[in-house]
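dude i think i finally got it to work??
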Amino acid sequence: MFDIQEELKKLPQKPGVYLMHDKNDTIIYIGKAVSLRNRVRQYFRPSHNEGLKKDQMVRQIERFEYIITDSELEALILECNLIKEHRPKYNTMLRDDKTYPYIRVTLGEDFPRVLFSRQMKKDKSRYFGPYTSAGAVKDTIELIQKICTLRTCSRSLPKDIGKERPCLNYHIHQCMAPCQGNISKEDYRRQIGKALEFLNGNYQPVIKELEEKMQAASEDMNFEKAIEYRELLKAVKQIAQKQKITSSDQEDKDIIAVAADEEDAVVQVFFVRDGRLIGRDHFHVNIGGDETARPQILATFLKQFYSGTPFIPRELMIQEEIEEAEVIEEWLSQKRGQKVYLRVPKKGTKEKLVELAAQNAAMALAQDKEKIKREEGRTIGALKEIGKLLDLEDVKRVEAYDISNISGFETVGSMVVYEKGKPKRSDYRKFKLRTVEGPDDYGSMYEVLTRRFSHGMKEQKELKERNLENDYGSFTRFPDLIMMDGGKGQVNIALRVLEELGLHIPVCGMVKDDNHRTRGLYYHNQEIPIDRHGEGFKLITRIQDEAHRFAIEYHRSLRSKEQVHSVLDDIPGIGAARRKALMRTFQSLDEIREADVEKLAGIPSMNERAARAVYEFFHKAHIEEEGQL
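look at this
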């Protein structure tokens, strides 16, 4: 179970994206944060108020997850990608698919241009971005055009060379006028090469040049020009930030990284589709045998995961080289029907993405360890607490019993089983009472326990005769502890059954107070108090509630399937509503039989005609008394 308050304590002080899920595990909100800890915690503070819509959203949150990034900028891009992919209910303000701008270099043209674009298409152009500032993108394009003197017009070249006069940019020395044939295609391509080099990240020469020009303008007292260079310099530094979350190659790829310790490992997978990181998942791996090194874990994961997944991307990026790389590549290529590449990036953006996946894997592993530790405290640790309380060693299997009936009619019994502190539902059993009539809980429990353990002893004997003592039938395994839903009376019934069958199994009772809340255990003729804040107490309560739920559920199923036949069903004019009214008013068939017409007519939903029908049925029809209500 996801404990929101506990998970809030583990949030890192790192930038990233958080995803809020509702009770159906649907993503209802995606947001980004400079600090995941500070931002996500805000939602669950009583004083937090972001409006009615956000309050409604917070009330629906059942769990949250998050992806850490290296910067707020990456978190923003990832947030955009995930919102486009999942369309969360409460992210209506971010529906626009054109949120972030790109720089487009039209390499498909003979004389390419550097343009501003809101979309990244699969054409012959090369895209850079996305970026967060449209103004910075425009300033950078303008800067590139000034440095490289590239064209901005939409003329079709070389077809339109010489047809019109050159534009203003030529006259202010910001374009070499390829429209006039002033520059060859090869020389122009060299200028485009400089622009691509700058956009690829080699911007230090430009920064140095701008700094020198800014200083020179300042020394010449040309402050307007110095300010212009300063603003362009600021734009260059902003646009030069590396973007790992989205790539311009528009390829499908999976980024895979492992975090491991001596016993367990977590594999983190980032899913990149059409160049966008659209999601991630992590997989817990139990390390077996000698497979403790990351390359071995990676190889095993690749074989198991991609043997069952319906889609295999063109490229898999992993942390380290693996021995079976060529064989796995060939196998994946056959499954995909096209070449699949298994690569270990050594530098640049791809390496950063793998590092980011590794960071998320390490965090997931740490969280899983804590989760397992808490779960062991709730289960095995709780059993140890109970065993210590009762002075019992090595309690692993616990059975609990309960009885359910309505005024003694159609009594049923339930047996629930907990192993290592967890419910083992495959071993649950139901009992429909055969020998007990009326509201006799002690007699009912005697029958249930006698049938359960007699059947178990019979199975054990049969298996022993067939030399199958290590096999288990439905009742073969006996518990280390029996827990009765009640005090002294229920415990004594269980001890009586065990003594008659020659069995020696510890029995304790789960005693409740006047408010029907568990207050202690009855064991060896004394009531033992329990720490209400301990895990042992919580486990006892869960076992008690589960036994009660299972019995009631069985009883309800019998009634809903109309397997419980009532004598009242045979009375003309008495339907389900009147039958229930009679059952609620009277404790037994004898009371109904002894009631006169006036008393019967006073029951809700009954009238004089129905009351007379009931009276005459019992006094004239001579129905046998063994009928069930």
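DSSP finds 20 helices and 19 strands in the chain.
im so relieved honestly
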